[in-house]
Amino acid sequence: MNKQTEIKGKDRYKAGVLKYAQMGYWDGDYQPKDTDLLALFRITPQEGVDAIEAAAAVAGESSTATWTVVWTDRLTAADQYRAKAYKVEPVPGRPGEWFCYVAYDLILFEEGSIANLTASIIGNVFSFKPLKAARLEDMRLPVAYVKTFKGPPTGLVVERERLDKFGRPLLGATTKPKLGLSGKNYGRVVYEGLKGGLDFMKDDENINSQPFMHWRDRFLYVMEAVNKASAETGEVKGSYLNVTAGTMEEMYRRADFAKSLGSVIVMIDLVIGYTAIQSMAEWCRANDMILHLHRAGHGTYTRQKNHGVSFRVIAKWMRLAGVDHIHAGTAVGKLEGDPMTVQGYYNVCRETFNPVDLERGIYFDQDWGDIKKVMPVASGGIHAGQMHQLLDLFGDDVVLQFGGGTIGHPMGIQAGATANRVALEAMVFARNEGRDIKTEGPEILRAAAKWCKPLEAALDVWGDISFNYTSTDTSDYAPTPSASS
Amino acid sequence: MRITQGCFSFLPDLTDEQISSQVDYCLSKNWAIGIEYTDDPHPRNTYWEMWGNPMFDLVDPKGVMMELEACRKQFGDHYIRFNAFDSTRGFETVTMSFIVNRPKVEPKIRMIRQEVDGRSQRYSFETVR
């Protein structure tokens, strides 16, 4: 009996154990429907486990299967409820690893629920014994399913309208040190950064309401700083007030207070969970608020190539769940990220249609059905001296966050902020004029530094700092260096 | 006080040649340029006065620069900005905005605090000369 062929008729439902392929979870001839959800897994089967049977097992365990035959399947339209592995191919240059494509019928998923989607797709299968490792690389979400989500509460287009900021990346900085400042000291850093030229300041992921600073104190002082800086510059300014807390009730309480003080933006951490994120998105839609998501914790499952969930998938889920900002990597900073792979994440956030782009890790065409766009955030070990690289890699629709690169400036925080803003505007101006910023970037920065002392000082301190480490999570289709200079 | 709205306010004031180079960039992207002016740079003053409709279908930046000259003649002591409009589906708003003229003496923006409950403040702004 062919182990990879579905068994039909009476023998299919005899009590006992069948191979997953025999149960109907593998169909090499299957043509995915436009309304199917598609998932691409990278799997590493245990020694001696056939790749097709492993793929069928993935399809089975992420849809209807259990380890043995059950007659109750026959009460249902089981053929349609079974996910189908329809393509298996070896991963180029990685012996023992296989790409397996699985199609899921739309009926398997509840409308507008990331929790339900993920309980199926990553619920059981990653612990499955016949696999040594598994990674969810990408998903195609059919428009029919995308349309069941409301998506970002504000979206990057409306965010720009609300902030009255167009034609350049936005600038931010995370208030440092992230732990220990009193509310009053904290607000000082916010004021200096915003007055110096930043658009946003930011709470860090783990600043909530610790013994050294009650959250209400932080919110009060920060909003004094934000408004004062606004008056000093004539610009709309903001500071991401982190409302992450132990319960939804407490998060709503904090968000309501942020609103009552006139904040334009609130912030949450990825670790609050998918349902809490969707609830905060609901709250933001009802309260004209921009929602910033810090991807705290993602590295535990996104970084290793052979096991976990790719960040591009997380980005897709978060666009559906409804966040306005998401940290998506810098490529040139201190944190993991191969440049083309990171560009792939940005495209997921910002495009209305993602075409297949294997070098950037995009395996499926994805039509976003006019759902709003998410503003990606580049944060972590970046500085003014890299402005040309950042603008060249990411374009205008991004928040560039220079935390240490603002607050650690030798002439003070305002000077640090000014250095970044001048570097940014000079680079945008030069690009628009038609200059090749990729090669002429350092020269353009030095020219601006001639009339801008703070920029000169920034380039003198950090100009040579780069983080040249090999990335872990790189494209399987074109080796790209993660060099940063 | 220097108002820093728009995408080039941290650079020295742009020369007409520099302004024209940016207009050229906008036209190459098929963006329409609108000229707007105001004497009130309040951060929430969204609607500056329009100096005519945005200019669609232009190929030469000279057309915009001539309008700027005319606008300056009448409102030389106002703020004047260029807004570039992108009509691409999924965008459809201003895509670039920069100040091309400032009054000789720029106004200040005063922050007004209103005590509300507890230590909370309600903040508002007022343009003062």
Automatic annotation (TrEMBL), chain A:
Catalysed reactions, semicolon-separated = D-ribulose 1,5-bisphosphate + O2 = 2-phosphoglycolate + (2R)-3-phosphoglycerate + 2 H(+); 2 (2R)-3-phosphoglycerate + 2 H(+) = D-ribulose 1,5-bisphosphate + CO2 + H2O
Q: Which cofactor does it need?
A: Mg(2+)
> What's its top-level EC category?
lyase
Q: Name one GO biological process term.
A: reductive pentose-phosphate cycle
Cofactor comment in the record?
Answer: Binds 1 Mg(2+) ion per subunit.
Residues at which substrate binds: N124, T174, K178, R295, H327, S379
Catalytic residue list: K176, H294
Report the residue ranges that make up the Ribulose bisphosphate carboxylase large subunit C-terminal domain in this protein. 156-462
Q: Which keywords describe this protein according to UniProt? A: Calvin cycle, Carbon dioxide fixation, Lyase, Magnesium, Metal-binding, Monooxygenase, Oxidoreductase
Question: In this protein, which residues make up the domain named Ribulose bisphosphate carboxylase large subunit ferrodoxin-like N-terminal?
Answer: 25-145
Task: Tell me which residues bear N6-carboxylysine.
Answer: K202
Q: Does the keyword Transport apply?
A: no
Q: Which Pfam families match?
A: RuBisCO_large (PF00016), RuBisCO_large_N (PF02788)
**Name under which the protein is recorded:** Ribulose bisphosphate carboxylase large chain
Q: Which species?
A: Frigidibacter albus
TrEMBL record, chain B:
Pfam family, any one: RuBisCO_small
**What are the protein's UniProt keywords?**
Calvin cycle, Carbon dioxide fixation
Question: Is the keyword Transmembrane helix assigned to this protein?
Answer: no
Q: Which GO terms describe its biological process?
A: reductive pentose-phosphate cycle
**One MF term in GO for this entry?**
ribulose-bisphosphate carboxylase activity
Domain named Ribulose bisphosphate carboxylase small subunit: which ranges?
Answer: 4-103
Q: Which domain of life is it from?
A: Bacteria
In terms of SUPFAM superfamilies, this protein maps to:
RuBisCO, small subunit (SSF55239)
Q: What does this protein do?
A: RuBisCO catalyzes two reactions: the carboxylation of D-ribulose 1,5-bisphosphate, the primary event in carbon dioxide fixation, as well as the oxidative fragmentation of the pentose substrate. Both reactions occur simultaneously and in competition at the same active site. Although the small subunit is not catalytic it is essential for maximal activity.
Protein family according to the UniProt entry: Belongs to the RuBisCO small chain family.
How does this protein assemble?
Heterohexadecamer of 8 large and 8 small subunits.
Q: Which HAMAP family does this chain map to?
A: RuBisCO_S_bact
What else is noted? The basic functional RuBisCO is composed of a large chain homodimer in a 'head-to-tail' conformation. In form I RuBisCO this homodimer is arranged in a barrel-like tetramer with the small subunits forming a tetrameric 'cap' on each end of the 'barrel'.
Q: What is this protein called?
A: Ribulose bisphosphate carboxylase small subunit
What is the organism field in this record?
Frigidibacter albus
Q: What is the lineage of its organism?
A: Bacteria, Pseudomonadati, Pseudomonadota, Alphaproteobacteria, Rhodobacterales
Gene coding for it: cbbS
